[in-house]
From TrEMBL:
It comes from Paenibacillus ehimensis. This is Uncharacterized protein. Keywords: Signal. Residues 1-23 form the signal peptide.
Length: 245
C-alpha cells in the first residue's frame, strides 16, 4: 500500500494521470469538401467563450474564428497536425480533489485541454463533475497493497467539442495487476457548427498484462464543415499509474 499511496501523492512528478485525444486513420480532407460559413455575432461569441475557457487569447481567437468560417479544421482537431502539438502540465488541488491538467498548443494557436480528477486519499466521498450533469461521488480507498479510485473524471476539451466520462480503476502492488473495473456516464458537447454521432464508451482491455495496459476509450464521429472525423479520449492504467499513449 505504501508504494501505491506514494505514487498517488506524487502523481504530478511521476505523471500518474493524463488524458489525451486520439484519431482514427482516415482519408485526407480535400479542399473541395470544405464549406465556408458566416457566423453571426451570437455564434462567434459562443465560440469565443469556449476558447476563453481553455485559455486561448483574444487575438488568436479571432484568427481561429476566421479559420472556422473558411471551412478549415483547427489544428487541435486535425489528425494531420497532432504531432505538432507542444504540451505543458499543471496541477490543481482542493481539500478533497486532485486534478492534473495537460494543455497542448498547436501551430495555429488552437489549444486542447485534457485532465483527470480524482478524490484525494484522505477525502470523504465527494461529487466530481465538470460539464454539470451526471454527478457521481468520487473516492479513493486504499488497503493492503492496493488503492481503488472510484469515479475519476476523465475530461477533454478543444473549444470545438468537450467530452468526459467516469472511470473506476484499481492500482495493485506487483507487476501486471492494475485494472479498470468500470466506465460510465459519458457526456459529449459540440460547438454550433459541428455535431457528433456514434458515441461509444467501453473498456477495451480490462486488466493490465504482459501484453500491455488496461485501456478504456470514448470514441465518436465529429461532423465538421470539412467532413467527418473519428476522435477519441483514451485512458490507460499500467504500473500503478494512469497515462495516455
Amino acid at each position: 500500500m505504501k508504494k501505491i499511496a506514494y505514487a498517488l501523492s506524487l502523481s504530478a512528478a511521476l505523471s500518474l494521470s493524463s488524458v489525451s485525444v486520439g484519431f482514427a486513420e482516415q482519408a485526407p480532407l480535400s479542399a473541395s469538401t470544405q464549406k465556408s460559413i458566416n457566423l453571426n455575432e451570437k455564434e462567434a461569441e459562443s465560440i469565443k467563450q469556449a476558447f476563453t475557457r481553455i485559455g486561448v487569447n483574444p487575438e488568436t481567437q479571432l484568427k481561429l474564428i476566421n479559420k472556422i468560417e473558411s471551412g478549415q479544421l483547427l489544428d487541435s482537431i486535425n489528425p494531420d497536425k497532432q504531432h505538432l502539438g507542444i504540451t505543458s502540465k499543471s496541477v490543481e488541488e482542493t481539500d478533497v480533489t486532485y486534478t492534473e491538467n495537460i494543455i497542448t498548443t498547436y501551430p495555429d494557436g488552437s489549444l486542447k485541454k485534457t485532465s483527470i480528477t480524482r478524490a484525494k486519499l484522505t477525502a470523504p466521498t465527494y461529487p466530481i463533475s465538470t460539464m454539470g450533469s451526471g454527478v457521481k461521488p468520487g473516492q479513493t480507498t486504499c488497503g493492503s497493497g492496493y488503492c481503488s479510485i472510484q469515479n475519476a473524471l476523465v475530461y477533454s476539451e478543444t473549444g470545438v467539442w468537450t467530452a468526459q466520462f467516469s472511470a473506476d480503476y484499481t492500482l495493485v502492488d506487483g507487476d501486471n495487476n492494475d485494472y479498470i473495473s468500470d466506465v460510465s456516464d459519458y457526456q459529449i458537447s459540440t460547438s454550433l457548427f459541428t455535431s457528433y454521432s456514434e458515441p461509444n464508451l467501453r473498456i477495451e482491455k480490462r486488466n493490465e498484462s504482459l501484453e500491455g495496459p488496461a485501456k478504456a476509450s470514448l470514441t465518436f464521429i465529429l461532423k465538421t464543415l470539412s467532413g467527418s472525423i473519428t476522435q477519441s479520449v483514451l485512458f490507460y492504467v499500467q504500473n500503478n499509474s494512469t497515462y495516455v499513449s
